[in-house]
Write a structure and sequence with these properties.
Length: about 230
């Protein structure tokens, strides 16, 4: 590896993960998921009747995601309330999670997923997706699979796994690339692919393979935490 990571991690090394379900007792399902200093909490409510009534779909229940980065989660206090960024992340998270869940048995309902980032050090959308997927499973929502998510990236020539804030902000050489992905854990079905920066087409497969391997590790971690419910 040519580039030395500030954290001392190997190019394919994830930050230390932590995960736990059942962290919000009032919710139907909940989970906390951490990648190092990035901490996401997700709470699921539903399925419950969707209001206003004209938004109901008699063919299926719907998924509604709200993502927010709390003011105290970053050193430069983030202005409270919705932003273009939080609206975008809520929407892409909804799209990332929806293919895993089956709400046809719950017509006219909504499943609300609230994601709060209580500490941010990059990778908040991916940590939020991992937490939300676990919270949906914990809530007993019918799912085809868990969704597993990570941001891979590139510093100069080097592909790196689980990009942190120092790496995301790197401006030397060719600069940094942030490439968040999400997938159905046991298949090659991707539900989120975003790209901030550049990955040459011939390196795309390499980046995706690195993400796949990381997702496998994350999936095992999610499953372990789900099995620990009630222990
Ligand atoms: N960030 C921040 N203030 C903001 C928004 C973001 O300090 O208002 C930081 C935070 O650490 C976040 C990182 O910038 O994790 C990268 O944000 P990005 O929009 O790339 O999404 P993320 O990597 O968190 O999914």
């Amino acid at each position: 590896m040519k580039v030395k990571r500030a954290s001392g991690r190997a190019w394919n090394e994830l930050r230390k993960m932590k995960a736990k379900v059942g962290v919000v007792p009032n919710a139907d399902g909940s989970a906390i998921f951490e990648f190092g200093d990035t901490v996401a909490i997700a709470a699921v409510y539903g399925p419950r009747k969707l209001h206003p009534q004209h938004m109901q779909d008699p063919a299926t229940g719907i998924l509604r995601v709200n993502y927010d980065l709390l003011s105290f989660s970053v050193a430069d206090r983030k202005r409270p309330g919705p932003s273009r960024r939080s609206t975008e992340i809520s929407k892409v998270t909804e799209w990332a999670l929806a293919p895993a869940i089956d709400l046809e048995a719950f017509p006219n309902t909504v499943v609300d997923v609230q994601i709060y980032i209580i500490q941010a050090d990059a990778g908040t959308r991916t940590a939020g997706i991992n937490a939300a997927s676990m919270a949906l499973a914990h809530a007993g929502i019918p799912m085809r699979d868990l969704i597993t998510s990570v941001a891979v990236g590139k510093i100069d020539e080097q592909i790196i796994v689980d990009v942190d804030k120092v790496e995301e902000d790197y401006e030397g050489g060719e600069g940094a690339t942030d490439f968040p992905i999400a997938k159905l854990a046991r298949s090659d079905e991707y539900t989120l692919l975003q790209l901030d920066g550049k990955i040459p087409p011939e390196r795309f497969k390499e980046a995706l393979d690195a993400a796949d391997k990381a997702c496998q590790e994350i999936y095992e971690f999610q499953k372990k935490a789900l099995k620990e419910v009630g222990e």
